[in-house]
Amino acid sequence: MRIPISALIGLVLTAGFFLMAIFAPLIAPYEMAEVVGDVWEPRSAEHLLGTDNIGRDLLSRMIYGGRTTIIIATAATILSFTLGSFLGFTAAVIGGWIDQLMSRFVDLLMSIPTLIFALVVLSVMPVNTTMLILVMGVLDATRVYRLSRAVAVDINVQDFVEAAKLRGEKRGWIIFREILPNALSPLVAELGLRFIFAVLFLSTLSFLGLGVQPPDSDWGGMVKENKEGIVFGIGAALVPAAAIAALAISVNLVADWVLNRTSDLKGGRGG
Amino acid sequence: MAETLLDIRNLHIEATVYPAGEPAKDIVIVDDVSLILEKGKVLGLIGESGAGKSTIGLSSMAYGRGSIRLSGEVFLNGREILSSGSRGLRKLRGKEVTYVSQSAAASFNPAKRLMEQIVEAALEHGVASKAEAEKRAVQLFRELSLPNPETIGNRYPHQVSGGQLQRAMTVMALVPEPDLIVFDEPTTALDVTTQIDVLAAIKKAIQKTGVAALYITHDLAVVAQVSDEIMVLRNGAKVERNTAENIINSPQEDYTKALVSVRSIDHKEKKPSKNPVLVARGISAAYGNKVQVLKNISVEVHPGQTLAVVGESGSGKSTLARVLTGLLPPFEGTVTFAGRTLSRALPQRTKEDLRQIQMIYQMADTAMNPRQTVETIIGRPLGFYFGLQGKKRRERVLELLDEIEMGEGFLDRYPAELSGGQKQRVCIARALAAKPKLIICDEVTSALDPLVADGILKLLLRLQRSEDVAYLFITHDLATVKAIADSIAVMYQGSLVRYGSKSDVLAPPFDDYTDLLLSSVPEMRIGWLEEVLQNRKMESAGN
User: Fold this and answer.
1) To the nearest whole angstrom, how far is the Cα of A168 from the nearest Cα of chain B?
2) What backbone torsions phi and psi does residue B270 show, to the nearest 5 degrees?
């Protein structure tokens, strides 16, 4: 199997980001909130990326911030997929008024702009990691619901599903053994994209001050902290911004490749 | 000697395929085929799927589907055409050589009226003025017995029937007065009673205009009616070429002999028993309270016997199967199984009821989960109904594989790794695994090549003897019915028109519809078509 060069770059970068997130405490030279120098020190041997707006080591903060970003985005994506695909499959298999009720409720949620909705919820609820994951997960689940319901409706009318129903199989078997394996290809490709959206969404929330709260920070929050520096020609805010872009692009490269590969394998061994 | 029109020399066609998980490789589709067609003659190309017959047909207009590579030489009217550029080909296609495809419904532009599309090629090539071309089209409509020849051209493709559309496409091919027409399975997608009209129309058109034709089909009985000569192909190579008469009456090669003797299964009719296994009484059903598709149907299936349900598309035969399985609850009538009345709807039926009635589908491709192995597919009913697990289950799966004449090597295969016939065999094994008393077979052989279908029918008959299972066999193919049925139900527009033992149903006097249906089944002899058309009592529904 040959991996195209773009996918290879994506894989290496993505893996790098995730390893960084997992081993953050081992890699980071300083503590997350430790003030170690002057405000906005330039790059030096001691501080490879310089220091931030109150003199914390920017590299260490980038590493810890990345950890926060990736963990929250991953958890939200997992939540949205579990919730969205399970409800989507169920609606497709059961059909009738239950499907109508769920689908119209999802339409209702989707008709409200996601960011506004999240801002409203987060401004009245206590902002902590769990709440962030919940809000992002539930909002994203509406998109996953739409996709998985559409895919499952297609699969549900195929003869092999009818054969399973004629055999007397329960809904659980039909959803998890007949439909799910055949819906994986489009869902896996969507997984990458939804993860990127989660990263961008979290960064937006933090930038607006409703995401991760100080002294902790994620990359979006770090852009906010250091944005005043740009006026003085200090590029500290650009580092987290570039990291967000790099993460988004590398995951996208992988997702593209997975989509191409799985659609080639339609009906095959499924990789 | 007559003048040579088409001369194909050492045609070799290759394509690159990309199998899943393997490196790309080149496969040979057509290997060193040469043929000569004289002006005004009809050559039938016959073979199974993958024989390369369509590919050869298209190469006579220097066209290849997808990324296939053609080499060799093709002379049309003495000019080599494979090497002529796209400009030269554009002058040629639609003028000297035209094409009639299998599915006219998919080939016509649904947004344009028939006439506009039919005269397009003639106008494009400047063969005739618009008025002349339309006049010629109307004349051809009349000759091919299309209704309202003056005005039918004003209709849109969806406003005429499938058989009419196929004839309209033949007219389209004839209007530019070509030297050669390529017919690519023009009647395969049609019902038998419609097929016969299209076949007659094509034959008449060829005779009247003196055009030469390549007639591609997998049905030897059909091609024998229209061709002067027949060329038998297999796996991209020539098997045999001879006059139609010689191919039918004295085939030389073993493969041709097998094709000619297809459906010569010997099956003695069994007498009905006292206790039928399944009784359907006064079944009426409708989709969505509006369209009534079954009207008061009563049939019986006897243990270890086969009831064949015959009819054209839209006759309601598949709907009957859906009612019996409980997928579509009838609004009237009862289904009794082994003395017990079954619930109308699927969710209310017991596991035991479900086990007793199994189903085999037309398209084995979609009837199996592409993500399950053969072992899972056959093993699931064993675990589900009998609680078999692990080693015991595997042993039983192997037994079943043995019964369908497939070996241990297939256990870990996925459906995509099986041939069409093997897929259908696995579906049969899955049905058998439940040890049912009745298997509903919904057109199980109609998507298969004749020889493969024959194998499946023989297997079904053998299994019926060894397992004592009854079949309700839904089909539109009367040759199949003759081969395997004990009793027959003929359906027409949702009603039962004739029902009884095979010998009774197939013996005269016939009602008009059964007569039409029976007489429309192509027989493997020359001159059959003319005979039938003379003796017909009823026009086909698609006319």
Assistant:
1) 6
2) -100, 150
